[in-house]
Amino acid sequence: MGEQMRIQISALSRLALLFVGLISAQxxxxxxxxxxxxxxxxADSSYYLALVRRMIDGSVLYRDVVAxxxxxxxxxxxxxxxxxxxxxxxxxxxxxxxxxxIASGALVSLIVxxxxxxxxxxxxxxxFLPLAAMQFEGxxxxxxxxxxxxxxxxxxxxxxxxxVSIFMAGVMAGGAFMxxxxxxxxxxxxxxxxxxxxxxGRFRNVGLLxxxxxxxTGLTITYVLFSSGLKLVELLTQLFPTYPSQLTAxxxxxxxxxxxxxxxxxxAVVLLRDPKFRSDRIVVALFVAVAGFMPQFYFxxxxxxxxxxxxxxxxxxxxxxxxxxxxxYQSTIWRTATQLSLSVFSAAFILxxxxxxxxxxxxxxxxxxxxxxxxxxxxxxxxxxxxxxxLLFASPAYYFLCGLLPPEDHKxxxxxxxxxSARVITELVDKTEWVVxxxxxxxxxxxxxxxxxxxxxxxxxxxxEQNFAQVKTVQEDIQIWKRQRxxxxx
Length: 490
Prior knowledge:
This protein is mainly alpha-helical. It is built from 20 helices and four strands.
């Protein structure tokens, strides 16, 4: 595979790659140590880990508490949480997720090596991937790193032409889908690889792949149905909730990251003018993989959604670097323009990732955000008892760190308030005994409060109408409100 690209790159290019690899390794080690010591909980991390804790305590996913995601990561994290978390509860889960990011780097290295036979290039690309992932929230416990591993393993298996490998590629694609819905995006790429594996067995390969995918997802869903006792319609209602689309990217850093990354893909698009480049099945499949993960941005433009196409973009980048460095050019101008463009944008992307990664490490070591979350959690715990029903207009981290429960388990659960109407939010206030607000939180507070305001509801007036009173302030921002009369919570 990729025989036309297996030409040795120059000694100068190898030296540059070696330098990038060594710097990446040093930055990666330093940032990883800081991350495991002081990395804080992301909002989504708190949602997932609150569910994992409930499962460890004996709750059955989907039956006892609602979840809007497929089950595989929750099962993996619950198993790890029961038997292998010994570094501190969140540290262990974070190590699991960050380990998936690093493993994805190793898998991307293998893809690049299979295409180029350049070990220096492959290793440098693999060491750099985790640093690139940090620009898209890869340093948190999220579902995407698990999807990355399953999707990349599926891709690598599909590169092989044996029936067993193609079948296992379908199984792993099913695993990616059962980690998160958007894992489905890997299917078109592995279909391309299965179709091009052999001319005389194309339909057999695609059929084998599809059978394996349906078998793995079907067995997983069957297990969930038997363990939860739910009907299929009830389960599908939870797995595919309807939320309003949000088409605006939230963070300037996200837009800047895309601006730096996009030219690397555009250069590869330009290279498709060359028949040798566009006829390579790995190159075509990488393009299809990137495209397959793009539709998710119709629903949301969260930064960590870029983690899914990112490994395939990085692999494509490594392959185009090798191709540009080794190909024969008929035009000196075209060679200079191509190599200069790739060099400039590659250097910009590398430097950008280094700067952000190093600054993130400095921030973690200086501000120690996890310790701040733990300190706030301890103060909240002095007032709010564990297992209390609480509605958070603040970081969901407190559900996990304080051992709190949502107002109800079977309709909304730990869901984010921004996804619901003013009517639903007021109903949740009516059901709970405690409300925690953080007015400085521009996301977890401002968004649901603005939803209430659009319906003419002031959050503080609503709390007073429901007979809540503020009982404590934590860290000059977090307000704890408690209902002042006893009542039976539905």
